[in-house]
Amino acid sequence: MAPKEWYNILPDLPEPVPPMRKPDGSVVKPEELEVLFAKEVVRQEFSQDRWIPIPEEVRNTYLEIGRPTPLIRAKRLEEYLKTPAKIYFKYEGVTPTGSHKVNTALAQAYYHSKEGTERLTTETGAGQWGSALSLATALFDIALRVYMVRISYEQKPYRRIVMETYGAEVVPSPSPYTQVGKKFLEQDPNHPGSLGIAIAEAIEDAVTHENTKYSLGSVLNHVILHQTVIGLEAKKQMEALGEYPDVVIGCVGGGSNYAGLAYPFVYDRLKGGKEVRFVAAEPKSVPSMSKGEYRYDFGDSAGLTPMLKMHTLGHDFVPPKIHAGGLRYHGVAPTLSILINHGIVEPVTYSQEEIFEAGRIFAKTEGIIPAPESDHAVKAAIEEALKAKEEGEERVILFNLSGHGLLDLKGYDDFLHGRLGSHL
Amino acid sequence: MAPKEWYNILPDLPEPVPPMRKPDGSVVKPEELEVLFAKEVVRQEFSQDRWIPIPEEVRNTYLEIGRPTPLIRAKRLEEYLKTPAKIYFKYEGVTPTGSHKVNTALAQAYYHSKEGTERLTTETGAGQWGSALSLATALFDIALRVYMVRISYEQKPYRRIVMETYGAEVVPSPSPYTQVGKKFLEQDPNHPGSLGIAIAEAIEDAVTHENTKYSLGSVLNHVILHQTVIGLEAKKQMEALGEYPDVVIGCVGGGSNYAGLAYPFVYDRLKGGKEVRFVAAEPKSVPSMSKGEYRYDFGDSAGLTPMLKMHTLGHDFVPPKIHAGGLRYHGVAPTLSILINHGIVEPVTYSQEEIFEAGRIFAKTEGIIPAPESDHAVKAAIEEALKAKEEGEERVILFNLSGHGLLDLKGYDDFLHGRLGSHL
User: Fold this and answer.
1) Per-residue model confidence (pLDDT) at position B421
2) N6-(pyridoxal phosphate)lysine modification sites (chains A, B) (predicted)?
3) Per the CB < 8 Å rule, is B367 touching A135?
4) Residue pairs spanning A and B at CB distance below 8 A
5) In this predicted structure, what is the pLDDT of residue A380?
6) CA-to-CA separations, A277 to A8, A9, A236, A263, in angstroms, rounded
7) A66: left (phi over 0), alpha (psi -120 to 50) or beta
8) What is the DSSP string of B216-234?
9) Does A316 contact chain B (CB < 8 Å)?
């Protein structure tokens, strides 16, 4: 069941991904990215090879962290909904850090260790990505400093402790370790921080320190490439059950967990003419796929990264403080943006109230408490199952349960006790 | 790999388990326990059948929660220790509530649902057992009230939220719902509670309400019986690798996770003459196995339960507030006590400092952050591996990683930042 190659969608897209550009309009050259990223990762970012071998060392770590992850049929949920649909989910929560993020973290850490990188930097909001990279750098023996948005560092200590237990250095951002950080601390010594500032600090740190590089957890092509292990496994697992999905569902922040599950099936539709629908769920309050403009924009809020052509709410958009922290992103992966433009991926939006109710139903019927991000996928799967019931059709639904919610329980508490605030 | 029968050690013990007694010395009759427990569970408690069929419905739920759980070789830990020993661990943390507790919770909830019980009560300290039973009662559609020790209810909200998300009613104990609870609240309206009081409340609630029974998560024979699914799976998994353990290790509170792994191997030693050692780890500050007297004592601290013959520190022993909440128990399962008396199981004790350091090493090498309880098993496994190195022998070590530590991170935080207090 364990794939030996990742799937790269670049050669199969209905139109090419527009190049990354600098603010002056000039095209970013691959070598320019090598200051930050591993060389092999940069090669993958632009590769037109459809299949890219997963190094044996990475495959071994995939096994160690519990891959292939289980594909589970949600029979009790089907019974609860009285639907003729079959609902399957790919459960990424079994990994030690509880989400899919580790799939690319391990690959990136491996390439860095091979290329001799001794130290990595990254940013993290609530801490999912930081935890995954902390685990990966522990296994490949690379030092890591994580710039964690200060308000999360203070209010959500649990993922910080996870990162520190793996041996990472976690600093609240803005920090006194960078020029950018110092500037913000001068303005306000108790600055709450933001993902934009944390990215800026991590990048500055990487370019100003010896043998230090930077690692990113979503949006870019190489990240999505590594995540396709999810969909490739799922396809084999469904095949073994004699099943094929009619609809493939996931939640979208930057897009990597959804693309990871969906792209191997998108390949079947684009190249094999398979009839399969793609539904991508996002928060009503961060509607980058459904309301964002398709244009060039920065990947971060500080305007430091190259510009990407994508659906965006604007890099200065400030997402409201919903519990699904991983979906608080102004943009969408460029490849996913193209698939949306071509009507291949259908975006849907849900409120916080709706997604937590879906999560509660899922926990009661299937026994797993999903991450608030993944609750968006659960909600969309329930909607598709109810539609199948209405239309009296026995459809096969597949969704990505990208992570468990054991480190995000406050949202459920607020929901169960009516403290959620219904406007988001 | 999925066993169809549980293993009951009662007929194979070197001497029979002394009967449960009332404080006046009279023997407790099985029917007397049926006021509290499911009839089938009481039958199992006293059964002399070596193999007891796992009902198909329970086996199905075992599959749904991720059984068989993985048996993993800790290769990176071996390399780190430079030991010739092979270290295997059975990882129970993949279940939705993150520990082995659900193995008996599902069985008990199933029998209750079959016997028409509409409502269950139980007690919980930090919440591991309460979470597992909440999940099980959600799946078998039984109402549940959990009496949660008030200080945990207030200071450790996360497992409470887990239980509530599964639909259980969680009340802080002492509560105004029972006579016992009212009595303690009158003494002190902010009484912090204790496991003893919570047990008393749960039992009073069960016997004073229509169609309500009580469920227990450790110590008794039927609980251990259900946990043997761990060891039976492990045996088949090791067989498939051509391996057999030289030593079987686990941590002991009441004894159910360790007995669950060990008893199927104890059977091989007692009945098949296999040479295999058994090491059981407990906290230095709660040394019930190594320092407890072997005598009749109550199972709870309030003196409400029948008396069991076991190693005990006295039912009025107040365990210090170590982070391994699941090991804060004054007694040891009667069957395990007999095996200790006969030198078959060897107890070892460790300090908090020692076990968290073992946990940190395990997290850095194997990528999983263990529960503080399970850290005792990790520590013992490391000790055995170092002994093998010293003696230059290639031994096979098997231990039970009974749960992950994602809901117990504060202990790691205190350890990493030198706030643990070294006296425990």
Assistant:
1) 76
2) 101
3) yes
4) 99
5) 98
6) 20, 17, 19, 12
7) left
8) --SSSHHHHHHHTHHHHHH
9) no
Q: How many CB atoms lie within 10 A of CB A393?
A: 12
Both tokens of residue B255? 């004894």
Q: Do B363 and A72 touch (CB under 8 A)?
A: no
Distance, CA of B37 to CA of B219 (rounded, Å)? 14
- Element of type H or E holding A294: strand A293-298
B30, amino acid identity: P
Query: What's the pLDDT score for residue A340?
Result: 98
Q: Classify A321 as helix, strand or coil.
A: coil
Per-residue pLDDT band for A423 (boundaries 50, 70, 90) equals: low
Distance from CA of B183 to the nearest CA of A (A): 29
From CA A237, how far away is CA A246, in angstroms rounded?
15
What is the ipTM metric for this complex?
0.91
> Residue B147 and residue B169: Cα distance in Å, rounded?
9
Query: B328-355, pLDDT tens digit by residue?
Result: 999 999 999 999 999 999 999 999 999 9
Burial B395-419 (b: 16+ CB within 10 A, else e): bbbbbbbbbbbbbbbbbbbbbeeee
A110 vs B: CB within 8 A: no
Give me the pLDDT at residue A189, please: 93
Q: What predicted TM-score, i.e. pTM, was given to this entire model?
A: 0.94
What token pair was written down for A62?
Answer: 């995939």
Among B135, B366, B404, beta carbon nearest to A367: B135
Chain B residue with CA closest to A137: the answer is B364
* Secondary structure (3-state) at B117: coil
Closest CA of chain A from B235, distance in Å: 20
Paired strand residues for A331: A312
A52: three-class secondary structure by DSSP: strand
Question: Which stretch of DSSP H or E encloses residue A324?
Answer: none
What is the Rg, in whole angstroms, of the alpha carbon atoms belonging to chain A? 20
**A169-173/A143-149 β-pairing:** parallel
In angstroms, the CA A44 to CA B413 distance is: 38
Q: Report yes or no: B399 and B380 within 8 Å, Cβ to Cβ.
A: yes
Residue A382 CA to residue A376 CA, distance in Å, equals: 10
